[in-house]
């Protein structure tokens, strides 16, 4: 039996410069710092925008003692007002350093934990353990004055990605025990918050999808792992997509295999979990694999610079991509722009206008538009109201390495991923990578005597 997920709770990142990253999330991406856990040697900060929550953890620097430095901090005590009870043998890190996560030494900044709410952590642990899963933290209960919460951390099959499983049904606080909620307590403000979500210039409401960069020929294994252990189901990106091959783009210099999946929806089976959020949309998981024919590319670059598979990007759903991109760009977010010809290609201007957008505005921010022609034949008539489309824009990498980035996505009836957008993204990233390589070569040459 698999462990069924009721919702995605948060995504955590491990970065070496927490101050810089936190300041970018707030001032540029307009997230709000709403909870913090300040330990003796580590900081964990939680940021939210709608129901999209990032927990930013301080990544330990290896220091002169290398890995041992990380092991020395095992003696860290959890904050005085929280109490921890291990239901099993603790992992060597035991999560002491990082609550609701583990902090193994990782050589680069990384987004690596997708935390899910489940109904029963102990039962999920037993089921997953029985199916051969590796657990980094066994079921562990944390209490504070607002109640208690049980969690466990499981290693995934994708590189350094872990999943923290939590059951917050017995917790009434605003976030997680051990964290101090800053400002208003969101658990008490739900209605007000829902009203607020649609307002403002940056109406990001939730995580739309998480894209993994994986080595060649591993997609099937990854899919099977999530299907078997968490009851994920295949999501077909395109109606012509081959069941085994996935969605393959292998023309004009692009070599990409995409396969998507989503977690089991209780609503489909006519069931509702008590903890499941009423109106919340689900987050899809996309597996990206490069194809050998087309040379060096963004997936291989990720694998190399991230030193292994992992989360390549996260799509943030927004109700208004133009105002969100504009606000973020003014605040200093750097977006990829497709070649200018993208907006003047035959039919593109008309496609954009028919969707009710201004081609200049989209061009100004690098926003891509894809009409969902494959899924809805009526869209081919070009009659505005039936046209389902999708708008996307991709940020430049957020860390020092060319690894993790964010995406803004606005869906107008289109639930997949646009082929035209993927091509345009691929090209703009290729051009960026080539420029970076040229710049690096120049630096090397000028440094030579
Ligand atoms: O289109 C999207 O948003 C995707 O998530 C698909 C995708 C995945 C990996 C890439 O390197 C480029 C595009
Ligand atoms: Fe994406």
UniProtKB/TrEMBL annotation:
<feature type="domain" description="VOC">
    <location>
        <begin position="7"/>
        <end position="168"/>
    </location>
</feature>
<feature type="domain" description="VOC">
    <location>
        <begin position="206"/>
        <end position="365"/>
    </location>
</feature>
<dbReference type="InterPro" id="IPR037523">
    <property type="entry name" value="VOC_core"/>
</dbReference>
<keyword id="KW-0677">Repeat</keyword>
<comment type="similarity">
    <text>Belongs to the 4HPPD family.</text>
</comment>
<dbReference type="InterPro" id="IPR041735">
    <property type="entry name" value="4OHPhenylPyrv_dOase_C"/>
</dbReference>
<dbReference type="InterPro" id="IPR029068">
    <property type="entry name" value="Glyas_Bleomycin-R_OHBP_Dase"/>
</dbReference>
<dbReference type="Pfam" id="PF00903">
    <property type="entry name" value="Glyoxalase"/>
</dbReference>
<keyword id="KW-0408">Iron</keyword>
<dbReference type="GO" id="GO:0003868">
    <property type="term" value="F:4-hydroxyphenylpyruvate dioxygenase activity"/>
</dbReference>
<comment type="function">
    <text>Catalyzes the conversion of 4-hydroxyphenylpyruvic acid to homogentisic acid, one of the steps in tyrosine catabolism.</text>
</comment>
<dbReference type="InterPro" id="IPR004360">
    <property type="entry name" value="Glyas_Fos-R_dOase_dom"/>
</dbReference>
<protein>
    <recommendedName>
        <fullName>4-hydroxyphenylpyruvate dioxygenase</fullName>
    </recommendedName>
</protein>
<dbReference type="GO" id="GO:0009072">
    <property type="term" value="P:aromatic amino acid metabolic process"/>
</dbReference>
<feature type="binding site">
    <location>
        <position position="209"/>
    </location>
    <ligand>
        <name>Fe cation</name>
    </ligand>
</feature>
<dbReference type="GO" id="GO:0046872">
    <property type="term" value="F:metal ion binding"/>
</dbReference>
<keyword id="KW-0479">Metal-binding</keyword>
<dbReference type="InterPro" id="IPR005956">
    <property type="entry name" value="4OHPhenylPyrv_dOase"/>
</dbReference>
<feature type="binding site">
    <location>
        <position position="313"/>
    </location>
    <ligand>
        <name>Fe cation</name>
    </ligand>
</feature>
<feature type="binding site">
    <location>
        <position position="407"/>
    </location>
    <ligand>
        <name>Fe cation</name>
    </ligand>
</feature>
């Amino acid at each position: 039996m698999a462990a069924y997920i009721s919702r995605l709770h948060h995504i955590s990142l491990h970065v070496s410069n927490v101050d810089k990253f936190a300041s970018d999330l707030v001032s540029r991406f307009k997230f709000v710092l709403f909870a913090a856990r300040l330990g003796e040697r580590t900081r964990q900060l939680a940021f939210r925008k709608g129901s999209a929550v990032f927990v930013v953890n301080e990544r330990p620097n290896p220091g002169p003692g290398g890995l041992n430095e990380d092991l020395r901090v095992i003696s860290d005590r959890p904050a005085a007002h929280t109490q921890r009870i291990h239901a099993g043998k603790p992992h060597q890190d035991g999560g002491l350093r990082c609550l609701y996560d583990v902090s193994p030494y990782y050589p680069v900044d990384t987004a690596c934990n997708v935390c899910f709410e489940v109904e029963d952590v102990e039962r999920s642990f037993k089921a997953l353990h029985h199916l051969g899963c590796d657990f980094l933290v066994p079921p562990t209960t944390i209490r504070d004055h607002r109640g208690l919460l049980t969690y466990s951390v499981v290693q995934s099959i994708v590189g350094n990605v872990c999943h923290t499983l939590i059951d917050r049904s017995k917790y009434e606080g605003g976030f997680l025990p051990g964290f101090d909620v800053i400002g208003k307590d969101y658990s008490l403000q739900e209605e007000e918050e829902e009203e607020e979500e649609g307002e403002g210039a940056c109406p990001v409401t939730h995580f739309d999808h998480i894209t993994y960069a994986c080595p060649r020929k591993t997609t099937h294994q990854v899919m099977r792992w999530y299907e078997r252990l968490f009851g994920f189901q295949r999501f077909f990106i395109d109606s012509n997509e081959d069941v085994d091959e996935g969605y393959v783009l292998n023309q004009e210099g692009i070599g990409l295999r995409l396969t998507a999946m989503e977690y089991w929806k209780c609503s489909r089976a006519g069931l509702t979990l008590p903890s499941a959020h009423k109106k919340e949309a689900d987050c899809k998981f996309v597996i990206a694999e490069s194809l050998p024919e087309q040379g060096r590319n963004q997936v291989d670059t990720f694998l190399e610079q991230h030193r292994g598979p992992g989360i390549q990007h996260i799509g943030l759903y927004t109700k208004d991509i133009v105002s969100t991109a504009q606000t973020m760009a003014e605040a200093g977010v750097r977006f990829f722009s497709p070649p200018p010809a993208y907006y003047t290609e035959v039919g593109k201007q008309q496609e954009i206008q028919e969707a009710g957008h201004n081609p200049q505005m989209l061009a100004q921010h690098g926003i891509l538009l894809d009409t969902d022609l494959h899924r809805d034949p009526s869209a081919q008539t070009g009659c505005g109201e039936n046209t389902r489309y999708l708008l996307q824009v991709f940020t430049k990498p957020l860390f020092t390495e060319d690894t993790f980035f964010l995406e803004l996505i606005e869906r107008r009836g289109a639930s997949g991923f646009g082929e035209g957008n993927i091509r345009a993204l691929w090209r703009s990233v290729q051009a960026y990578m080539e420029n970076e390589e040229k710049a690096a070569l120049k630096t090397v040459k000028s440094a030579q005597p």
